[in-house]
Each structure stands twice: as C-alpha cells, then as structure tokens.
Design a protein that fits this description.
By secondary structure, the chain is an alpha+beta fold. It is built from 25 helices and twelve strands. Strand 9 and strand 10 form a beta hairpin. The C terminus is likely disordered. The chain folds into four domains: 150 residues, no CATH class; 127 residues, no CATH class; 127 residues, Alpha Horseshoe (Serine Threonine Protein Phosphatase 5, Tetratricopeptide repeat); 226 residues, no CATH class. Strands 2, 3, 4, 5, 7, 8, 9 and 10 form an eight-stranded antiparallel beta sheet that branches. It comes from Legionella maceachernii. Keywords: Coiled coil. This is Coiled-coil-containing protein.
C-alpha cells in the first residue's frame, strides 16, 4: 500500500493545524487495526428530498487513513461520511471516496441501517447521486484546500532547509582533512531533514537520500574510529617498547593481530574495485559537456543508476566497500553533482520545449513541483503543463496556487479568471480536465464557474469540454452535479421565483441533456461515436446558428416536446431488437446527410421565430412517426401470429388489420419522403443553399431542424428519427388444416 501523505502530515504536525469547519481531530483504529484520522465537521442544516422521502443530515466527518491502495477504491486517500435520519427515524449512511487528486474513486455509496443488527446495507438512490457528490465536495473542498496549502508550505520550507544543509555539507567536503567530524555532523543534518520530507511527498527520492547519507555517516564514523584506534594502539606500542622486556611480548602480539591474514570465516575488505568504478563514473561525468543533448540524457540516467548501485553496496556490507574517507566523500560529491546537472538539464529542456528528451530523464522527474506547474499556467504553455502532469504526481482540484502574487483556489480557478481574447486559457483548461481536474468549481459569490459555458454563445472555453467529452458533456454524472450545484445555490441564497428563473432554466436544460445521453446509450457504441463526432464537426464548421440554438435550449415548448419525443421513442424501441437495428441504420443515414448539408447552408437570413416554428413542427412530426411505427409494429405482430384453414372466409377483423397495415405504411412512407435526402431543385430564395439543393419549405425545415439537432447535441431526436419503413405488407396465406402455423411472405 502507498503512504498517505495527508495522514503523515496530520500525524506529524497535528498541533499546528488550523482547519475551517473542523470541530475535532482524533486518531482512531478500525476493526481491521488500520489507523485513521477522524475529522469531525461542523454540523450544518441540510435536507435531501427524494420522491417525497426526506433525509435530514445528523452529523458528518472526513476520514484520512494511514495507507491508500490504488486498485481498491474504498482504500482511497480520504472519504466523506454523512449520517441521515428519515421522517420515521431510520438511520442512513453516505460514503464518498476521494483519491490524492481529489477525484472520486467510485460512485457514492448510500446505505440504510438495519434496526435489529445495526449494520448498514447499500440501497439504490441513483437519482440522488448528484446531490450526494455535491454535498461531499462542498464540505471537503475548503478543508482539503487548506490542508494541501499547509502541506505545500511545509514541504517548501523543509526543502529550502534541506538545500541549505546540502550546500553546507558540500563546502565542508572540499576541506575534509584528517578530521571529518564537522562533515559527518553536516551529513547527519542532511539525513534528518530528508527523513522529515520522506513521509510528506509521494515520490521516493528523499527516502533514498536519507538511507544513503545514513550509511555514509555510519561508514565514515567507523573509519574514523578505526583510525583513532590504530593511532592509539601505535602510541601504546611505542610506550611499551620503552618498558621492561615483559611488555614487549604484548606489543608484538598486538602487531601480529593487526597484520595477520584473516581466517576463512572472516570477510576480506577489497576497496580497490569500488574506488575504480567510482573513478570511471567520475571520468564519464567529466566528459558530459562533449556529448549531444540526447547522449547527455542517456549518460546522466546511467550514471544515476550506477551511483545508486554503489550506494546500495554500503547497505549490503559487501566485501568491496571503501575504507577511505576520501572515496566516501567523492561518492557523495559525484552523487550531488549528477543530480544538480540532471536538474539543470531538465529545466533547460523544459524551457526549450524539448519534451521528448526531457522524458528520458525519468530519474530526475521527482524535481517537478508546483513551481513548474505554476510556470506552465502563467506562460499558458499547455504542452509543458501536459508533460508535468504526466510525469509528476500533483493534486489538481484543491491545490491553491500563488501566481504573480495572487492566490487562486485551484488551477481551474486560474484558467477561468485569466481567460480572455489576449490570454486564452482553453488549451490549459483542456489539459487540466484530461488529468482529472474538475470544472465544477465555485467562484467567490456564485454557483460553479462552468455554467456560463452552456448559456453563452461560442464561449471560448467550451472547446476544452468538447475535447474531454467523457468527463464532461457526455457524462450523466457531470450534469447531475451541475444540477445539484444550482439547487444548492438557490437554497443558500434563498432566491425567490423570479430570481431563480435563470437557474431553473439551466436545470431544465441539464435534465434534458441527461435524457438525451440516456437515449444515446441505447444505440450501438460505433453509432454513438459517429453522432458525437458529427456534432463536433458541424459545430466547428457552423457558427451562425449558435444564437438560435442557445435560445432553443431553454425554450419551454421545445423542452416539453423534446421530453415527449424521448419518452415515446424509448417505449417504441423496447418492443423489438430488429426495430433498434433499423433505427440505427436510419440514424446513420440522417447523420451523413446532416454533416454534408451543414457545410453548405447560410442561415443568416432567417429569424428566430421562423426557426422555432420549423423546429416545433418537426418535433410534432417525430411524435406522429414514432406513434405510427409503434402501431404498425403491433399490427404486424398480430398478423404474424395469425393463420386459418384454407377455403374458409377471411374474417373481417383480419381484413381490418391488413387495411390498417397498408394505411400505416403509406403514411410512414409519405413522412419518409418528406424527410429523405434533399434532391436537386430550384431555389426558392428563402435560404441560399449551395450545389443546387432543393429549397422547398419542407426541405428548408428539414435542414434547419436537422442542423439544430446536431449543433445542440439533441441526440434524442437523432434516435427518434423514423426507422426504415417496410416496403411490403405482411400477408397471411391460407394453409391446409393439418398445418400448424402461418406462412408469411
């Protein structure tokens, strides 16, 4: 399991912490013996309402465990726990798990308590998912933000001290002399500072340094003691030579012990190979300046690896260990010089945008930190930002940043704050989302900053969401959280009906987006991708409709009709797998037509009311087609299950079914022709269409509505377009009396 840096920070600096809305911090142990910090939170009035069921918040807390495990979402860096009562007094429990990047590791878990056993068991509450997540985020974000800010300051302070101590030790190494005591003391300080940093960072570099320096100190102290002992023994030997003859035997015996050959059970110390290898590495390092950039990255990486091997030998007590203070000092000096050179080369490569070469310096990627991160944002260098986030384990969502003297709650806040025509931040925001940053972040006095992207025309940051569809605009959970955010804002501000109208319209829009995504899920995956790719392409190629589209998205008539189309489409598609296949074929046909047509339409001449009128008419036609196809399916199913004896008279009810079938097919074929691929014809002048496309009113209506669907991502209408209409009726044939079923042709 990985170490939990938050737990370690709390554990070490418990008494220094000041956290908002935390009433008590205490260490606890769960049933499995694992330690965790329990952060009791200030209890705030909060109420969930779900299908007339009311859940009242009783208490809540944050748990930060000692260890975390990436492949087990419940063993995340921390999780939020809340307890509720319903109106009957029954207890409920909510868990929302977050990783070190403040991303959720799994969907929220909502449990009900058994009144007898007092144990909690999960209950289904999908409709409350967005509110659960919003509640958790709203209660943990300020605390995590403050924790991470204090942790970052502590790491920065310790690293400054560590670097200063390293410089002091290096200066003493140049004047080691015969007495290394001052150097050893300096190394001890370096080791202790590295040991303090080890539990606070996710990389292992300080742990390696701590162990390496500790072994150096141990070996140097041992050599110093051995030298002192030899010196002392020589002095005693000299004194003994002046003493009576009886003492000469003891001195001679001691000298014999010093220079005797070891027996087979004792280790021999042969430092020659160790010193030779170290000298070879020093020679290679000295030649570094003559190499090309790519050779330098390879050589530095290899030198670092070989030095790590020599450091490891100190711990293994091998026969080749050095017995010279000078060799040990040279080992430490070369180790430091390699890392300083690696750091300088890495920074140079990043400055010159040589990310391919910088990738080779993996051994030095631990040096990437918040300073590099803020530099990339400040310079709007999205490629550098991408490299840093790919190779450095940074928290994104609740990590405060100071850029040009201004404190920002997170990198996403900075992007929203600084985005303008002169300083576009869309590429940086796109990279942040790619690596897990959430755009559902609040400003100082309003709801989430992302809402204007959906209500504005051609918002410059919207492409960042389109580039990360799965995390944003194609995510049902994303819209659920947006809805919960607006509901919480309306409640917190106690807005009246007029004040909340704009937010209610946004909520309705997000609800419709959820319905569209649910409808889209019923289609085959390749077709889903085709539709979404076509939407993106059309949005890139067509900008004139965006004003109409934004108005239509929040039009109550359009929303109501769209929901009805969505509902009846789902009911129809449930009836037959074959119908779903036909539907997919039909949708593919229409998507191809719309994509082609969108490149040749100029809609500047049309007004909004005309556009809306065509849209409403089209939606009504969709409803009619869906209902007729559903009825036709039922009629044909009855006909397929019908048979009668040859020679007998056809029943009137059967004739009625066949007549109904013929009428429905004829009507549906009329609709299909109406909305089929546009054919060449004369221009009516209402809209200038290119390539001599027919410009009749119905064709214009089809083009407009189809364009609207693509551009506003109304996938529910794609899925409700008429399926391929059967070209032949199902007829029932008379069969012999001994036959057992119908013959259908």
């Amino acid at each position: 399991m990985a170490k939990n840096t938050l737990f370690n920070f709390i554990n070490t600096y418990f008494r220094e912490l000041t956290l908002p809305d935390v009433t008590k911090i205490e260490v606890k142990q769960n049933q499995k013996g694992s330690y965790f910090y329990h952060l009791d939170l200030l209890n705030k009035p909060f109420l969930f309402i779900n299908n007339s069921q009311r859940y009242q918040l009783i208490n809540h807390h944050i748990s930060v465990y000692e260890t975390e495990k990436a492949d087990n979402p419940t063993l995340s860096q921390y999780h939020y726990t809340a307890y509720f009562h319903d109106e009957a007094g029954k207890m409920y429990q909510l868990h929302v798990y977050f990783d070190h990047n403040d991303q959720r590791t799994m969907p929220p878990i909502f449990c009900a308590q058994d009144e007898n056993t007092k144990t909690f068991s999960p209950v289904k509450a999908d409709q409350l998912e967005g509110q659960f997540i919003d509640l958790a985020i709203s209660n943990v974000e300020m605390i995590m933000r403050e924790l991470r800010a204090q942790l970052a300051r502590k790491i920065s302070s310790l690293e400054d001290s560590y670097n200063a101590l390293e410089n002091q030790a290096a200066a003493l190494a140049d004047n080691l002399g015969d007495d290394p005591q001052a150097y050893i003391q300096a190394l001890n300080k370096v080791q202790r500072k590295a040991a303090l940093l080890t539990p606070l960072v996710r990389h292992q570099q300080y742990e390696h340094i701590s162990r390496f320096v500790s072994e150096l100190v141990k070996k140097m102290s041992g050599i110093k003691k051995e030298k002192a002992k030899i010196s002392h023994d020589i002095q005693n030997s000299t004194s003994d030579s002046l003493a009576p003859s009886r003492g000469n035997n003891r001195a001679l015996a001691h000298r014999n012990m010093l220079f005797r050959k070891p027996n087979k059970t004792e280790k021999t110390v042969s430092p020659t190979n160790y010193a030779k290898e170290l000298q070879e590495l020093a020679t290679r390092f000295a030649q570094l300046g003559t190499l090309s950039r790519i050779e330098q990255t390879i050589t530095l990486t290899d030198l670092n690896s070989r030095l790590c091997g020599l450091a490891l030998e100190l711990e293994l007590e091998s026969n080749s260990q050095p017995t010279s203070l000078a060799v040990l000092k040279n080992l430490k000096t070369l180790h430091d010089e390699v890392h300083l050179t690696g750091k300088a080369l890495l920074n140079t490569l990043l400055k010159e945008n040589e990310f391919g070469l910088a990738k080779n310096l993996r051994a030095f990627h631990y040096l990437l930190n918040l300073q590099h991160f803020t530099q990339a944002l400040r310079e709007r260098n999205h490629e550098l930002l991408d490299f840093i986030l790919e190779n450095c384990d940074l928290a994104l969502n609740n990590q405060p940043l100071t850029i040009r003297g201004i404190l920002y709650p997170s990198a996403v806040h900075y992007c929203f704050s600084k985005d303008s025509g002169a300083t576009p931040m869309v590429d940086c925001l796109s990279v942040l989302i790619k690596y897990g940053a959430s755009v559902i972040v609040r400003g100082e006095n309003g709801p989430a900053l992302v809402h204007p992207l959906f209500s504005s025309t051609n918002h410059p940051l919207m492409p960042a969401l389109a580039a990360n569809r799965k995390q944003t605009i194609d995510s049902i959970t994303f819209y659920k959280i947006l809805i919960a955010d607006l509901k919480r804002y309306i409640h917190e501000r106690n807005l009246n009906e007029v004040q909340s109208l704009e937010f209610i319209q946004m909520i309705q829009f997000y609800e419709l987006e959820i319905k569209k995504l649910l409808t889209l899920k019923e289609l085959p995956t390749p077709l889903q991708e085709k539709i979404l790719n076509s939407v993106d392409q059309i949005k890139e190629d067509s900008n004139d409709l965006n004003g109409f589209l934004n108005a239509l998205q929040f039009d109550s008539e359009i929303i109501t009709l769209g929901k009805q189309v969505d509902l009846e489409t789902k009911e129809y598609l449930k009836k037959s797998k074959d119908r779903r296949i036909q539907q997919s074929q039909s949708i593919t046909h229409y998507v191809d037509n719309i994509t082609t047509l969108s490149k040749h339409i100029d809609l500047k001449a049309i007004d909004y009311e005309t556009f809306k009128k065509h849209m409403i008419e089209y939606l009504h036609d969709c409803l009619t087609m869906i209902r007729k196809q559903s009825e036709l399916y039922d009629v044909q199913k009855k006909l397929q299950g019908t048979h009668y004896t040859r020679g007998s008279q056809i029943p009137n009810w059967l004739k009625d079914l066949e007549n109904t079938q013929s009428t429905l097919i004829s009507e549906l074929q009329t609709f299909q022709r109406k909305y089929s691929k546009l054919t060449a014809g004369k221009s009516s002048g209402l809209l200038p269409l290119y390539h001599n496309l027919q410009n009749s009113l119905t064709d214009i209506k089809n083009a407009l509505t189809a364009m609207k669907e693509s551009l506003s991502k109304l996938s529910l209408i794609f899925s409700s377009l008429p399926a391929v209409v059967p070209t032949e009726s199902i007829k029932v044939e008379r069969i012999a009396s001994d036959d057992t079923g119908p013959v259908v042709r």
